[in-house]
Design goal:
Layout lengths: L1 E5 L7 E7 L2 E8 L9 E3 L5 E2 L2 E6 L18 H12 L4 H17 L2 E9 L6 H12 L5 E7 L10 H11 L3 E2 L9 H18 L2 E6 L9 H12 L5 E5 L8 H14 L2 E4 L1 H7 L15 H6 L3 E4 L16 H11 L5 H5 L7 H6 L16 E4 L4 H6 L4 E6 L2 E5 L9
Parallel strand pairs: 1-4, 6-7, 7-8, 8-9, 9-10, 10-11, 11-12, 12-13
Antiparallel strand pairs: 1-2, 2-3, 5-14, 14-15, 15-16
The chain binds fe (ii) ion.
Pfam families: Amidohydro_3
InterPro entries: Amidohydro_3, Metal-dep_hydrolase_composite, Metal_Hydrolase, Metallo-hydrolase_Enzymes
Protein name: Cytosine deaminase
Length: 411
Amino acid sequence: MNIVNARLRGKEGLFRIELEGERIAAIAPQPSPAETTVGDLDAASNLVTAPFIEPHIHLDATLTAGEPAWNMSGTLFEGIERWGERKALVTHEDSKARAKKTIDMLVDHGIQHVRTHVDVTDPTLAALKAMVEVRDETRHLIDMQIVAFPQEGIESFEGGRHLMEEAVAIGADVVGGIPHFENTREQGVSSIHFLMDLAERKGLLVDVHCDETDDPHSRFLEVLAEQARVRGMGARVTASHTTAMGSYDNAYCSKLFRLLKMSGINFISCPTESIHLQGRFDTYPKRRGLTRVAEIDRAGMNICFAQDSIVDPWYPLGNGNIMRILEAGLHICHMLGYEDLQRGLDLITDNSARTLNLGEGYGLEPGRPANLLILSAPSDYEMIRTQGYALASIRKGRLLMQRTPARVERC
Ligand code: FE2
């Protein structure tokens, strides 16, 4: 299969992309628009990119909103309460069915790489075992990384350390954490030492729910970054959320940024979830409750956007469309300046790939996997402005999905 009349990000003119088996064989400039021949796909002067990435989602909780009760206040704390009720009803088959239904939604929107957190503060580790099976059974659709996520703490939950080690033995790819939720500051710090030791020992990646609060005194990010720096693990470590940074004063943040840059860690922001859940203790002025996305980006550090939830007790909306998150995030983070719009897709493609350590398994280069999207617009700017979408998703040289655009007829 070949793709003709393709535009590539950051390049002038049209290109022809040749796929051979499961690999990209060649990418060559096209002097003029080409006719399609049998077996070719016509990008019609639209962008062709590597797949979209969902770097932070909770597939074990998706599609549970309202079961057995709705979150009436919309707050994080009522969400935890509602999830406690739903968690008691989780079965192996129920977990697998909801995760697979959600993966289909992600695939329909051009996503082929997913990092999911799975709650391991459950002595049976039922959801984790289900997700390991889902990871195997959906390899034709997505590449999945599973994070061992201690929702109720590593130190504060009975047997928390053992459950984390068990989760890794069963097959988790990434070690998680939630230091700001531990009962004390000391437990938060020791949980980070524990999870970094575990990841280093097993050669795994790290992705910590870090300082997901408006509390300006929640400062576990400095501990995580310093641990990453000292161990030389920065590129393999991610700090998710870090929403407290939106409430840090500038003097502290200026000192913190020096350490963050030295550490080389990655960041994930979930803008729709954070604008919904944070700022809940404020009247007015009301904080946005997000990390400093633009400032992290401007400082040359790596940050990407994620959905976090789809129809669960914490967030009742979502349909798998990461472009929706990008559009909202750029608004919320004051990133609608001209230059941000020219490279907006970085936040759901290349930056996310770096976070997930995808290396040569990702990107439009000859020799790399023939995983790519044909989009509905010719540039990042136009994709964002027109609320564009993936028209086709190709994986290992095979069409996964094609979308027929809606037609409007003037009457
Ligand atoms: Fe999360």
